[in-house]
Automatic annotation (TrEMBL):
Keywords: ATP-binding, Leucine-rich repeat, Nucleotide-binding, Plant defense, Repeat. Pfam families: LRR_1, LRR_R13L1-DRL21, NB-ARC, Rx_N, WHD_DRP. This is Uncharacterized protein. It comes from Erythroxylum novogranatense. Residues 192-375 form the NB-ARC domain.
Amino acid sequence: MADALLSVVLKQLASAVETGIQRELSLLFGGQNEAENLATTLTAIRSVLNDAEKKQVKESSVRVWLEELKSIAYHLEDVLDEWNTRISGPKIDRKLKHFPRTKSVRLISLCFCFNRSVAYRDIGVKMESIKERLSRVAIEKDKFHFALEGKSREESERLETTPLIDVSEVCGRDSVKTSLISMLCDDIEDASCPVVVSVLGMGGMGKTTLAQLAFNDEGVDEHFDYKIWICVSEPFDKTHIAKMIIETVMWSGWSNLQKQLQRSVGGKVLWSDSQKELQRSVEGKEFLWSDLQKELQICVEGKKFFLVLDDVRTDDFRQWEPIKIPLKSGAVGSRILVTTRNERVSKMMEATFILPLGNLSPEDSWTLFGRLAFYGKSREDRDNLEVIGRRIADRCKGLPLAIKTIGSLLRSKETKQAWKSVLDSELWELEEVEKGIFASLFLSYYDLSSPLKRCLTYCAIIPKDYNIEKNALIQQWMAQGFLASSRSVEMEQIGEEYFDNLAMRSFFQDLAVDREDPRVVTCKMHDIVHDFVQFLAKNECFIMNVDGKKKSKWDHLHKETHHLTLLGQMGQFHPAVYRLKNLRTLQVLQENTSTIPRDLFHCMTSLRQLDLSHTNIEELPSEVGRLLHLRKLNLSSLNLVQLPDTVSMLYNLQTLDLYCCRLLERLPSSLRKLINLRHLNIKETDRLSILPQGIGQLYNLRTLCKFIVKGKGEGCSISELKYLNDLRGDLEISGLENVMDIDEASEADLKYKEHLLSLDLVFALGAKEVMEKVIEAFEPPPNLEVLQVYDYGGSSFPNWLTLLTNLKDLKLLSCVNCERLPSLGRLPSLEKLLIGHFNSVKYVGLEFLGLDPVAERKDSTEPFIAFPKLKELTFRFMVEWEKWDLTSSAHADSCASSSSSNVSVTMRNAMPCLQSLSLYDCPKLIAVPQDLILMPPEELAITRCPIVEQQNINNASIDGFN
């Protein structure tokens, strides 16, 4: 984690040198040479951090050294961040001068009216103190004799697994073992050779144990010619793996020959040190890879082998492919069994079967625990310790490694008090922990990149069993500066990749996916993993539960605590909180908190994230503007009427979350100053009826859930959307009746906002002709998947509506002047359609399906399928609708004869995927189309349509009667 922090600091340092002029650099660093010397020192320290982070688990002196280093790095990051903010302020002011501004949107300069030279000198004083501390840390580094970055001593000494296992210690895996053996031994038609089977699960789940059970099964032994077990080293070494396979196969061949000779001569055959000689001949000989590949191919050619690759970590196909190619020469039925913590490995190796390994049941957990913890104890001792023992076993949450570790630990503890101390202790404080319960997690952790380590340990501020919102978590990582910057890849996308990486390594569980979107929305963290990350983040991340019933551990708060979550029922802030000068995250999850003390923000000037969404505050102190470093401000669901104007001074703010602030009436008039703002969540803000001018200058916005158009002279005009082309997700544009200038409507340039997936266009009654021209100018991006149009007053729909080939969900509501429905049947991706409150529609015919009857008669060689993917169709509050006919047109009588057999046959193909048809409040509707009656959908709901309800509709369940 320290490595990632230093990496960020070095980038900021380079930026400061690049952007600062010589006089300013002298004030900050003492000159450019001093800045370069500082960077050199940091780089030298960074080169030993991998070794230091591993040693600090067992060596307290190293831990103290690392704590001081991280403290220095945090302070240095604050100073550099303040420097960049100060020098950027005047530049932003100059840019904003080019835009028109009214008197109401004036704001104090981002320089905050301070004397620049004085401010730089103050920063320079802080820098001198940091340089002195860093110099001492650099000198102390040498006494620890850290290994330089590379393969550390712990990695080279990593214990290799073997196929040997004490079956008596295996519990609860019988059914899984049966499934695995079936995957290994059953014949598979048209399968590639060899078939890859992957056992997937988090560290400590028993993947290796399960593989050992299968490897030693007698049935498996008889099924294959050769069995090979390889504990894959890290990094992935193809040469070593190839040599191990060759050696094992050759030795197995010689061993079989020895047995045959023994049977033939009726006695022993002397075979002195043959395996050692073979090993020396294979391992010691230098091979060209091409020669080794050929040897491997010859070695397994025509043989049915079973290869176990235990603990594979690399997901790079380029490393796996050179081994895979020669193994294809094996006989049909050969298997490769892979154990891994990473789902990407399974996919990379093209596994035919993936067997996720779940937790042990409570009874199996207790059985395994008892075999270890009660070993050698008397019946009386067992009875005396059973109750507390079950509580300890439950805490292991079905993780075999955790159970075995704690069980082994308790084997030597005889008294109930000793067992209770284990139950009550925080496991990460136990000396035995590193080699036991967390060993597998440490292996996964050390395998992560530095930014991923930082992202994972930050999760220590999330309460146990908490439902984690993925996007919110990514925004928190972004606020803390954990996401590596890239000009070509969005920070949010990098965050998605980080999340997916951690999820695939089983650090997250209970992944919930949106029904409409395959991406993960929420997840949880296993308790054991949570304990582990709290162990890693000790002193940095703290969760304080203050319920007033028991003494809280305020004294345990470390002065270097950087991330704090407050839980419980207390409504006041404890004095200890004010002492946390270096706090970067404050999450207040206390509903009883109704006020925020104004002086709180005087103490927490390093805050990057502030979450007050679970409090009951009704006013945000203006002092929030002092939080120079703040990146994320979560005020969702609060009863705020307005925000203080000082929010506009939060130059670094990236996320402002005001979701469900239903009483909010206005935003700060100078919100346009927040040029780093990426996410402005104002969903469900019912009373917010105007946005401040200048929103269009927030070019970094990715989320703007709602855009409100006002008339000239107040609020935002539609043209402010012109340059917000990075908007993504959902966007609602309301007040469109205020757009009277067609040229201005065109300037919104919606078609260039290619990342938008959902768009709501909300009108109010206005001039019909103007509305038709305005909506035509609002051509949305071609990737749009969801469109909703409300209160549109025109009589016809825009031409672009039928060109949205990716549209899946369409709602058209309260379009009271439309006499005909738009032609929607040719939308190839449409799955859901809702039409309601079309008060002028009396007839729905072929045009709705996108058919021209005359053209259909002329060319009917290829039957047209209307609404090819439509699954749900709903009509509601169609008060004048009388007729729905799929065989005729709403045109003049000359088209009435168009219901020829050709067209009729074509219409039998309409809506082939329809699953649900709903009709609500259509009092004049005479009949449902005959084709829909003959082939009714799975769900047919007809409510308050009295004439239709009297029809005899066979094989359909009607709401209200059968």
